[in-house]
Records
---
Amino acid sequence: MTAHAPNILIVDDDADIRDLLADYLSQQGLHVLTAADGKEMQQVLDNDPVDLVVLDLTLPGTDGLALCRNLRAHSALPVVMLTARSSSLHRIIGLEMGADDYLCKPFEPRELLARIRNVLRRSEGGVGTDAEHAQQLQFAGWMLDMAARQLQRADGVVVALSAGEFRLLKALLERPNRVLSRDQLLSLTQGREAEPFDRSVDLHISRLRQKLGDDARAPQLIKTLRNEGYMLCATVARPS
Amino acid sequence: MMHFLQSMRGRVFLLLIAGTMASAVFTLLITRHHQAEIIARDRAQRVAGQLAGLVHTLDAASPQERWLILRTVRGLGIQRGTAGQATPQSGDEILLDALREQLGPNRNLYTGRAEPCREFAAPRHMRRRASLCQLVRFTLLDGTPLELVVHAPPPFPMRPLRPVWWGLLLFLACIAVLAWLVARMTTRPLQHLANAADTLDLSSETALLPEAEGSSEVRSAARAFNRMQQRIHEDLRERTGMLAAITHDLQTPLTRLRLRLEKVQDAELRDKLVHDMNAMQQMLQEGLEFARSRDASEPLQRLDIDSLLASLCADAVDGGQPVQYGEHCAAEVMARPIALRRALTNLIDNAVKYGGNADVALSCDTHDCHIRITDSGPGIPHDMLETVFTPFCRVEHSRSRETGGSGLGLSIARNIVEQHHGQLLLTNRRGGGLEAHVVLPLAGR
């Protein structure tokens, strides 16, 4: 966390939502700026330092997706997209345009706050990689579809993942060939510290190995390093 | 056999055979009749020729010679008529025509039946048959009227029809083959149409019927069918679009409302309001899901169904729900994974919500996989087992509201399962509890 309160820019054409959101976020200790459309957004960005943009998808004039793409082209400013639509298609487009996260209206205010904090932490920590914006990741003959949250085997068969397994695999794929401790994996996947005797990571790892056809006694893909954690041994590629 | 008779193919086949046979018999009868007529005319011509020869001879002879001549021709079956032999019955028209032709006009020709015939000294070979005698009256060139009785042999007997069996069989076989081909040709397009209507997938734009094949009627039927299919799709799209639009437009005021609720100071009131709003939002969401459950923009993929069930159960367990994944087997189905996940989630949620827990099992046979989701709840009254699939239908109103169902979960699930060419059935288990049974066809190798 930076010392000062992070500057959040809210871009939404609905004045009520803009003000209500500004109220809520400032109550939670964030510094909030607002803009009604792309033009105002650019003015604010030119005049004030901004740490994160909360961007509505449907805006008059230049829409949210185009604004997001412009932002991405010029800076690494984190973006959380808001949209009234909840089909997977928009999620894919949103991620492709470079949004760091994505939330459907109507949302839990607390959920938005959590996402904002999460994105801020990731962008400051610099742990983010290219993989975070990818739609699909390829590794060891498998393909992970980020939008549908499912795996596809080399022969085209879809293998479903539970939410926990998906988060874990995503965390591993974003950091291939690096040892990740249980604590790291827990905070990456569930945003919480490991409690004593927490075996959920081990459970998910064993399920993942089963689904990936990785022999638990002599794993090739997800290796166990005694007293250290786990490591995904594969080349991870983003299909162009 | 009954089935064959009831089918259009059978009927057309039989009708064609019967019609062809009837027309063949009719043609045969006409031909025979015609033949008999030709023979009769030929015989009349011959008799007329004989008579004409006699008349010309008589014309040239003196009265004494005439007497002699007439005595001579008795052997040929011609005799002077005697009084009382004439009857009012008219004679042989064909003979009269033939005589007129041979003798020319001015002879006062008349023919009639003569009775009796038996005094006749007819030649022996003619006598045996019942014969008819014709009375012919005319005048000679010198004006002497003369009346002759001509013994006309009976009509030539036609040979009776003797069936040629192998010919008849060959004929029948030919007609049968032809009738079968025609019947097939006429009924096949109908079968195609029925198949197309049967497999009409409301969720996706399936291959339409070919509009440029077959006869003009078949083509116009195919065009009509395709138009109907398009209209259904348009209607469906419109409905889905409308629901989506309503849901979408409601999302902005709902977002405002949700944010305003944060300003409510009374924590208890705020929680209740948030709860109400969430229920509302869930209903909207499910309405949208329902509208989408018939739409299949998601591509079909080969799916490891075992992994899907394992994931769903793991998610439920992670969420603190009493869900167990028991018996299972390796199986792959052609599926829209996100939609199928939605359907199965609904069934598991229902089991937990109304039955207290969910036991999930997967078994396979040669063609299908069977997913059974069972609970230990009270089940559903027998007469409600089908009606619960109707949108917005709830079994027990007060209880369902409490648990916050929209009454769409099962409708969504069934729509999606049927879209996968599967079946979804609910049954009450003997030991208590409800079983949701999903049958999905396995993906071909």
---
Amino acid sequence: MIKFLNSGILSSFQDKGRLRKKKFGVSKSGCLDPFSFELANKLLGNYHNEPCIETLGGVSCVFLEESIVSITGPLEIFSVNDNYIYQTNSSIKINSGDRLDIPLSNKGNIFYISVSGGFKINKIMDSYSYHQPSTITNDLKISNGDLIKLNRNRNLGNDLFISDNTFFENKIFNDKKIKIIYNEDINIKEFKKKFEKKEFIISDQISRQGIRLKGEPIDFFKDQNEISSEVSAGTVQLPPDGLPIILLNDSQTTGGYKKIGSIPRFQLSKICQSPISSKVKFSEISLSESISENRKINLEFNNIKIQSYTNRVLEINGRLISVLISQNNSIISIADNQQFEIIEDRFE
Amino acid sequence: MKKDFTINFQGDSTLVIKLGENIDYETNKIVHNLFNNLERDICFQDYIYDIYPTFNNIVIDYDNLLTDFETLKADITKKIYIYLKNYQSDVLENQITEIPVSYGGLNGPDLKKMSNELRISEEEIIEIHSSTIYRIFMIGFMPGFPYLGGLDKRISFPRLSTPRIAVPEGSVGIAGMQTGIYPFDSPGGWNIIGRTEKKLFNTMSNPPALLPSGSNLKFIRI
């Protein structure tokens, strides 16, 4: 069992989402960053769609039994009992009574926590995903003081794994360009030119439902009188105020604002991990380019290098230093509780 | 049955079958008829994430690692021609779900104001509202929320200028030319004229939404 001393910000269970329920007005929900979600399970050898805890950080929890745990998301360090320092995108061994703390990040937004064998929770309408705007899945939200059970059939072998971060750095955290696939009725050169010139900023109005952008409004479509129609994660709306909204997994199933296009699927993780105040500039991508890019990126993700490691903690001048050492005895990284430095990033 | 349609993409994972431009009964009936056929035939394919009807479209969310827009479009086009050729009206079209409503008083705090401003007695507003058969054009906005068509012009009324912070579950409201029911406690700007005890959405029921999209609804005064 895990006890949440502090549930952190917007922490909930998520899997890959609730399928085939839009006709009842229920959106897909599901993990906002599918790559980090999937890595969390991969590091533990779990089923690929095993529900994880999704959080914006600020979590503090105590394990009442031993477990192997993985933390993925923004490239940060986190601690166990204040003295064992680890980096994200790795699995760690937790003993009964250990306290795990996950920080807030300014490099990204969303972390995933998974445990070997998974959490013991109940499905709601065929999914473990919390849906933020309604009350129908409140049991899948994590609050202060919650006790969460773990499944029994877990693998407590001694091997711990860490992933190479090149993929995440290049495709999610450092890539600045946001692509848009315009809707077919927005094939208007003048608009595209105007829109792609603007630089927008991610405002603090972000939730699982969507991201509001701020900046200089774009004045193009007057007299909006749209019939409510289909929207999904990635849909870009342009309301009468001229500031785009990017809808996310928990958006309504239908919306009434002007739609101009969609963020390609391979960039949904990226847009969700973009911190508040980061700049957004759109550029066009065609449907076929977007699909081939998605296939390429998924292949790259499936080939991410994962290696086993051990963690040594040294006390130097009263300071705790954590050294991650790979199987062939090379040093992967060195960290104290402030920062870490990657020494070995050649994953051969 | 003859009906023109177009198939467009929306992003790289959604296909939209457009059967009309406006909100009208005839188009929405065909939308649901074709939707029911299409859902039956393709919904358990592993590349289908979702399939659902809107006012004038049928929408398919798909996994673009397993199929692509052009392949799906060709397949769907063929299927729709077959459905249109063998078109038969749907039983759902005539189905009516009755919703018992307690009008006015504490359950309908805006009824009196509407009566004063419209110069129609509360009695008459209730009579008009509960004698119409409304079409459920689609379910959307929030889980189980019906978009109803058919509100009588005489009792159309503009939305509140300041929305309420909390409208109780089951509240029956009017906003412009629309009438509807709140499936959950939520903030809202509709004029509330009554309340029903019927639960519109229950995650433990199958289907979870009480009202089937494409059927009809009648309010019964209690």
---
Amino acid sequence: MELLKAIAARDEAALAQLYDRYRAILFGLLMRILNNREEAEDVLQEVFLQVWRKAEDFDEERGRPFTWLVTLGRSRGIDRLRTLASRERVAEAGARDAVEEISDAASDAFKSEQRGLVNKALAQLPDEQKRPLMLAYFDGLTQSEIATRLGAPLGTVKTRMRTGLMNLRELLAGQGESFGF
Amino acid sequence: MMVHEDYKEMIPARALSALDAAEDRVLNEHLENCSECRKELEEWQATAATLAMVADPVEPSPELRERILSEVRKELSTPEVIPFRSTSRNIWRSFGSLGAMAAVVLFTALIVGLVVLWRENREINEKLAVANEFVQLATTPGAKVSELKGIDLGSGATATLAYDKTGHAILIANKLPSVPQGKAYQLWFIVGKNPPMPGKTFSPDSGGKGVLKEQMPKEAVDSAIFAITLEPERGSIVPTSPIYLRSFEVN
């Protein structure tokens, strides 16, 4: 991706452009994980500074920029969540309460059409497969923690998580080009 | 005995970073030697990343953009070799003959060489200064020295921690495994059966050498076990990785 190459060559304007393109999706993800604006902004800043310092590590043969950025952002968000040592959420606080803050999806790389496809695919998964995926992705829980949370045997959770992600991949497989970011 | 298929079954959960620590460690060791599984992990990570789309996009505050760019400008203004790139363009334009160009190339190479030498010299001096400081601290009356040894993932690594009665401490570590992106080593103080107390984080250089200056908690000065784990760069308040190095005798 040209933007990441430019950033690796210390082009500040390219970083600003990347920020403008991905800020809303990454901040939305961090808000979902941390549910706290201050923490989420702090982590978002860390993520973009890491992108600035490590852009040369991005290998386009190993994945898309979207995957790289989201994986980096989510990993930092979960690290912070664990550091805070608290998974208590403040009910109804944060992004979902502030309608005016929700970004216009058409204005960034995160197109509403693609969101619709993912939500549609998830809706087709049985709840028993979907819940382990959500608990792992947004709450940073391990399989053992999920088993405890759901009161299910560990082996069952492992199977459901694997099957859930496999099903999600198959459901999205036909949309390959739509996720080309 | 685990076979290839066993590892492959663990990969989707690894893409969600949902493996428990022991399985994560086992799979990481396998991934180091299996390009097929590494490729598969990348594919599963792409699928996992689509889950980010479930979260509503949210606008961060407008000030954040400026804060980030301001940090970046600060880094750009730090004197490094990089500034030569921008100034050299103007110089090229101002010289017409090949001889002058060659002179500029030679001059630039000389300056770059001098900068590299200066930096190497500075690094050596910094290392010597830390070594001196370490010796001074270790020989202060009442000072103690504790040896840490690498275990499991940190096997082969060693570290020495010197500290005085006030808790002023210096740790020098060698042969540390390199750290993944966003991670750093963190020092811990374990007193009795209390939860480990967090120390600072540090990153090793390319040769696996790490140095840390620390002010120990008072409780740890008289009696403690020291341990080092791998944590997020900013540090953790509780250990989240297995122990890489530890001392075996209570000081």
---
Amino acid sequence: MLQLLLIATRNLVQQRRRTLLLGGAIGGVTALLVILIELSTGLRSTILRSATTLMTGHVNVAGFYKITAGQSAPVVTQYEKVLGIVQRTVPELDYIVERGRGWAKVISDTGSVQIGIGGVDIQHEPGLHKVLRISKGKLDDLAQPNTILIFEEQAEKLGVTVGDTLTLSAPTTRGTNNTLDVQVVAIARNLGLLSAFNAFIPVGSLRALYQFREDTTGALMLYLKQQEPSAKLVNDVHARLRNALEKAGYALMDHDNKPFWQKFESVNREDWTGQKLDVTNWDDEISFVMYTVTALDVLTGVLTFVLLVIIAVGVMNTMWIAIRERTREVGTLRAIGMQRSRVLWMFVTEAFVLGLSATALGAVTGMIICGLLNAAQISVPTGVRLFLMSDKLTLLIDPLKIALSVAFITFCTSAISLIPSLLAARMKPITAMHYIG
Amino acid sequence: MRFPVRLLLSILVLSALLPARLAHSALSKEQMHEMLNTLDDRQRNNGDYKALVYLEQKEKDKTDIVREAIVYRRSADQKLMILFSKPKSEQGKGYLRLEKNLWSYDPNVGKWERRTERERIAGTDSRRADFDESRLAEEYEPSDEGEDKLGAYSVHRLSLKVKEGVDVAFPLVKLWVDNGTMNILKRQEFALSGKLMRTLYYPRWQKLYSESKQGDFWYPPEIRIYDEVEKANSTIVLIKTVDLRSLETNIFTKAWFESKSR
């Protein structure tokens, strides 16, 4: 084996120009793949971190209350009882956030926007302090009643700054429009799509706007001790909660992989009144933004496939050339007793060595580029920001994924070399020795 | 050594101005409260009030609109009602203030909607407080800004900040009060951020004898309101035929309003 490795390496060194060209192509593809993987990982991580703070817990207990069959409100009534059950059922719990949910027209003196309003108790929202980057005002001022936190793009659209007043207008569950004046106390930096549709007011003010009782909330957001819990753990907690709530006599909605605001239509069509609880996971609530990650993954896959095909053709061609050039050498080797399988492995090993060294080098280059891009703190344009959920380009290194990419590309280059290698191995020694190339 | 003539002139001008400025400024807190109470009291009727009002709205790139409305007020329980009668599209629409809640009614949808103090009355630059009794002393804490000139008038300037827990359209207000008549001549309203939102001018004041008050009742027949955010927008409020006789007892109800809206 060592002999084969030595022959392969010597051959590669001897054909320096060809090796550099092909190795460069393989390395380039690997580097590109690594960058795309790191971008996708960074995007997923940013979305998870931002969304699980702004819009959802790892697991949520929410629901709808219907006064009449056709009119629903996204609330959990008498939530303290539900809270007790949750606390008893989920020992993995880090903390719970009680979050009001609403959708209101926000009116300034120069414009208006329709956005989702989250009712928060800022003193019990550790996640918001970590995720939101405040550009003006103070986040803790959200503890004062009738205040609001908006994002930069909303502030720009509405033409307001900290200290200005906005009017919120929303229909109550009885159908009457109610309004509330709120003072802007903080403006946060944009967080892509999520910040375009979200603003926060104190939960008491949200109750006042919708005329909800004190024991009513929008959702109980459960944050588990693991910062990025596995899907298995989340599903396990989800199933346990459903069981416990059903046992406690609560009516539960069927699991639907949609955010709460996409469920109004179907809930209003259903023929029931009163309270129904809805247990959801984080990926249900942000399914509408996860398409960006899926799209990037698909793009990575397609791009990798196309580049791999090009590389495969390149590798195969190069091997053909190498075999043609070395036909007499193959004949001599076969004549002095080298087995067909050894000839086969000789060429495959050459492709393997080329593939492994080029992909390894490509992966390292890709990681260095990602590191430099991260260090440069590159601001992305507004359009891209929408999908990146961040104003800065963030790439996250996932060693396992990178190792798998290196292995996959090396495997592909080695596998593709099997065809010319097989043909080389099948050559008769006498014919090969008389070959004039 | 040359004597600095400019410096000498500056010193002379300053020394001439400074004593006059000092002599008129710095009202005590009691004096300022007294001033606000006087301003409120002059515009208070201590009874019922009915007036025909015209609102002339000017908006950038839009045709001017004139609305006609009747304003009803009752001092005893701070009730207010604005019922629009013209143009036809606005007929029957209006506002009713009950227990510090401002309700808006649109006969086309037949629904009441609760509005805040910042509500633009019928979409104009006017606010509820422009039609209601003056409650400056109750709602604001004053600070003195001294004497000033407003055109030919000698005025006293007051800066007002809303008291905690009081709901008003604008938390910061500046007033120009005529020293001779104690009429408000100019009013500027600000957001808490300090942004100027509206400027109001009261070019004329009229008085009526009020039976319920047993004294004079003052009102501005014309208010010119300038939107300082959308600079080209303005509204003129004309208050006509003020009637201080008692109104029907049950007038300030949603049922009465709806009956008039049909």
